[in-house]
Specification:
170 residues, alpha+beta, Aminopeptidase, 5 helices, 28% strand, globular
Length: 170
């Protein structure tokens, strides 16, 4: 598993992976009614990744990478600056065929290495109580999980020690 910058070629592969092997609601917010992939959702997905090419220092304050296995794009992971000093936020999605195979854990671990190399002191992730796969990945990587109090939302937090990108997480 590797992370790849989302240039135009990779973006085309990322969009194809999303519309072929992931539900629209798993990848994008619902800018249109319904759960189907629509031209509006595809345009949103393309714009989202294009707008994040300048990285954490750009106007979106966010960076995205494609998750690649064997030369094939199978999802995306991101880091975003928050208003809290030293805190970054992460999120990810994967195609159905690679779920449950450790790819999510490897992708989030790789982006945690990026965060640490950038000098972040903490990374947070927000998910739902029903997203068992995300909760398992976050717990396995050492995140502390806290209920948001609404019975549906979970905030995960991991404190980091700055490190080089080559440091391996287990």
């Amino acid at each position: 598993m590797t992370l790849a910058a989302v240039d135009e070629v990779v973006l085309g592969q990322l969009v194809h992976a999303a519309i072929s092997d992931a539900a629209a609601d798993e990848v994008t917010p619902p800018p249109t009614a319904g759960e189907a992939w629509t031209p509006t959702r595809v345009a949103w997905l393309r714009g989202f990744h294009r707008d994040r090419r300048p990285g954490l220092g750009g106007p979106a304050r966010e960076a995205t990478w494609a998750v690649v296995i064997g030369g094939r794009v199978v999802g995306s992971v991101r880091l975003k600056r928050t208003d809290e000093q030293g805190m970054l936020e992460t999120g990810a999605w994967l195609t159905r065929p690679v779920r449950g195979r450790g790819v999510g854990r490897a992708a989030v671990a790789a982006v945690l290495d990026e965060a640490a190399a950038l000098g972040a002191s903490a990374v947070r992730a927000d998910t739902t109580t029903t997203n068992a796969a995300a909760l398992a990945v976050l717990e396995r990587l050492g995140f502390s999980l806290t209920s948001a109090g609404d019975g549906r939302s979970v905030r995960a937090l991991l404190l980091l020690e700055p490190q080089t990108p080559s440091t391996e997480r287990r």
